[in-house]
Design brief:
The chain is an alpha/beta fold. Strand 5, helix 4 and strand 6 form a beta-alpha-beta unit. The protein is built from 4 helices and 25 strands.
């Protein structure tokens, strides 16, 4: 049975749609917790290149690697995914490859029931909002973003695709976070500021001025300390 027909059949029968999660690491574990709490999907397995088939995370088994996806989709009848990779660049690369390899795939959004989301906020596909997070009025959170535990996004903020807030990070009103940029643990960004693309704001920073793209910045007040490459690991 084709994957899309299988999904429609399960929806009509009242069954939860099946879901495959990419990533069996620490971030994947947190995403699974969010998905379990939300209760909208049945997570049937994980895709991971670093762990063997059958390895389990919170009771969910690794089914194979990205290269195994065609056979997994054929066997399982599922082309609905969540990409639970913490590194912003790697998450964007996997998403881009999937869109080429599986044009009819569906990426879902995961929101913990203990998160607070304004009715006027917009969340893109593939974004996760974890427990205790707040997304306030008229915010736009693009696809593939991470709004982590107890982070806060005040009114009229924009997070570009595949950007992220670490636990406890705070954005004041009207902040823009660029593509693939990461705001570190417990950092605070003052209102009406711009964080450029592919930038990393370090742990505990106090950002009081605009930060350019492709840099690492930290401190209080936050200052640029060096440049960085788009694909440079930051976790």
């Amino acid at each position: 049975m084709p994957a899309d027909q299988g999904i429609r059949k399960r929806a009509m029968s009242g069954e939860k749609p099946q879901l495959i999660v990419f990533g069996a690491g620490g971030h994947g574990k947190s995403v699974l917790d969010t998905l379990f709490a939300e209760g909208k999907y049945t997570v049937i397995g994980l895709i991971d290149s670093t762990r063997p088939v059958g390895y389990e995370v919170l009771g969910v088994p690794v089914l194979g690697t990205e290269a195994d996806l065609p056979s997994i989709i054929a066997q399982r009848g599922c082309n609905t995914f969540f990409i639970a990779i913490g590194d912003n660049f790697q998450r964007s690369e996997v998403s881009n490859r999937l869109r080429v390899a599986i044009p009819d795939m569906t990426l879902v959004t995961a929101v913990h029931p203990r998160a607070v989301i304004s009715p006027s906020a917009v969340l893109g596909a593939g974004t996760v909002v974890m427990a205790g997070a707040v997304v306030n009025a008229q915010c736009t959170i693009a696809g593939g973003c991470i709004v982590n535990t107890r982070s806060s996004v005040d009114h009229d903020c924009t997070m570009a695709p595949f950007s992220s807030l670490a636990p406890g990070a705070t954005l004041g009103g009207g902040v823009t976070v660029g593509h693939r940029s990461a705001i570190g643990l417990g950092s605070n960004v003052n209102q009406q500021l711009d964080i450029g693309a592919d930038t990393v704001i370090g742990t505990g920073a106090c950002v009081v001025s605009n930060i350019p793209p492709s840099v690492v910045a930290h401190g209080c007040p936050c200052k640029v300390v060096r440049s960085r490459e788009m694909d440079e690991p930051y976790l």
